[in-house]
Amino acid sequence: MATGISASLNSMSCRLGRNSFTATRPSSVISLSSFLTPVTHLKGNIFPLQRRRSLKVCLVLEKKIEDGIEIEKDDSPESSNRASERLARKKAERYTYLVAAMMSSLGITSMAIVAVYYRFSWQMEGGEIPVLEMLGTFALSVGAAVGMEFWARWAHKALWHASLWHMHESHHRPREGPFELNDVFAIINAVPAISLLSYGLFNKGLVPGLCFGAGLGITVFGMAYMFVHDGLVHRRFPVGPIANVPYLRKVASAHQLHHSDKFNGVPYGLFLGPMELEEVGGMEELEKEINRRIKSSDSS
Length: 300
Known about the structure:
The chain is mostly helical. Helix content is 58%, strand content 8%. Helix 7 packs across helix 9. It is globular and about 75 Å long. It is a multi-pass membrane protein.
């Protein structure tokens, strides 16, 4: 690709000091280096210029494209085919993750429902209702679900963004394929939940009841986290009407600010993310992100 300078001078007279010269319209393109070469054939003192001088030069940068170079256009068939392939691949990845999410969700949910049913039916055997055990199970269910939010906040900051960054980094990069290495954390958190549910299901007493409640609370939190984080925030699968719930929209916007790293990673939690942003003075940015998501959802 060659670059030239075209000088357009219409029979123009330039008065420099006492010397004058007339330049006519050139018929060819001159190079920048030749144009800037000092003029040595002019006699006399050129500088300073007189106040009456009249100099009008029009420099036009031109780009010449060498023969044989093809310029790829956005509307070329090859570009359109690549865009179609990327779109089809993204749809296939979302469908694959949706199937996996539905299978795991249905499996874990059905297992939890069956476990709760048999757990309480066995407690009713003998005609005596173990009120204390049932209250303990319910209290630990709620407590574990709430406690998991604080555990996730601490682990996110102290572990995932520290010693386990080599795994969590996949979540902060453009995803290649339906899954990412960060999904392993969901499996890791499912292990204690299933273990606690199993122990509480096959044993009687207050302690097994508490363990059962803790496992149930972890399971409920995990299900909610998957739908809000993976579905609503990162849109790995459609979530339906929950996307229009005002507080969940605020939660999703707060987590999006975590990925923008505007407040040094805050918020690290999910469901209480807006409160974390309020503590660091990020409510204005949160409102901007909420409005951006509303406009994006309306236009799509």
